[in-house]
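Supplementary Note 3. Input sequence used for the single-chain structure prediction.
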Amino acid sequence: MTEASAPAADPTPAPAVSTDVPAAPRTVVVLTEEALKPVDVKKIVALHETEPATYRVLVPADTERNVLAAVLNHLSLFEMREALEALTPVDRDEAVADADSALRTSLAEFEAAGASATGEVTADDPMPAVEDEVGRLHASELVVVTEPLAIQDTFHTDWASRARETLGVPVLHMYAGDWRLG
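The predicted structure, written as discrete structure tokens, is reproduced below.
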């Protein structure tokens, strides 16, 4: 009776197979109430400099606003002229045009920074659009860029606070043109 033996192992190591597949870019949704400044885009892009990222910018058309909150926000920052301007009625067409201009400027800033970005103007309450985009794009995070809003920030009714409650992705709140986080 003969015994079957396993073939002898080859002493030479197998050639290394590269498993380095470029990672798919992560998608970051950016929600802003005004045109992003170069410093804002620089901070956002710097957050993702070690991995590829694409950006989806959403700008709401401010066609409706809480006049009392707007006035109090401006007064809390000693912005008297802006507080008076907040008392004027909203021109819907102008609000949409302003949002479109802010979107185009923001996309141009991302392009100038060498980053890939697309975007759209949303309804006055951007949260349904944010939820849709985060889900549709499988976004890895949301960056919210606003001016300081004393009333909304204090009572956690700002966009970032609302998003943290519902999205299930990291949410970063930055103040426009500033190094501070909200």
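Helices lie at 38-46, 67-76, 80-85, 92-112, 127-137, 150-154, 159-166. Residues 26-175 form a domain with the Rossmann fold fold (CATH 3.40.50.620).
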